Amino acid sequence: MRGSRVQAVVNELQGEKIDIVMWSENQATFLANALAPAEVSKIFLYEEKNKVEVVIPNEQLSLAIGRKGQNVKLASSLTNLEIDILTEEKIASLYAKM
């Protein structure tokens, strides 16, 4: 039966909504999975600053951020990184100024 294990967990949590994220030891891959269903174009990881810049297509911005920033907050909590979401358009304009 589809989703029976997930339903069992949700029922145990009295209907609480849950997100399931595919684990990866690679931080960039794990971060991209945590931001799904938004498509991630590029990830710039700055381990020494514990920060990451994620580039996404312009039309995916609201999907990546989520309602009231919920998606990016969850991804930040899961990865223990400060996350900046940038659109491809913003990156292109930054590089054009250089």
Write the layout of secondary structure elements.
Elements: H1 4-12, H2 27-34, E1 42-46, E2 51-56, H3 61-65, H4 70-79, E3 82-87, H5 88-97
Helix pairs in contact: 2-4
Walk me through this protein's architecture.
By secondary structure, the protein is an alpha+beta fold. The protein has helices at 4-12, 27-34, 61-65, 70-79, 88-97; strands spanning 42-46, 51-56, 82-87. The chain has a three-stranded mixed sheet with strand order 1-2-3. Strand 1 and strand 2 (51-56) form a beta hairpin. The chain is elongated.
pLDDT under 50 segments (min length 5)? none
- Stated plainly, the CATH topology is called GMP Synthetase, Chain A, domain 3
What's the average pLDDT? 92
How far do the termini sit from each other? 55 Å
The gross shape turns out to be elongated
Q: CATH superfamily, please?
A: K homology (KH) domain
Task: Give, in spatial order, the strands making up the sheet with the most strands.
Answer: 1-2-3
| Number of H/I helices | 5
- SS elements, strand count: 3
Supply the helix-strand structural class: alpha+beta
Strand content: 15-25%
CATH class: Alpha Beta
Q: How many structural domains?
A: 1
Integer-rounded radius of gyration: 16 Å
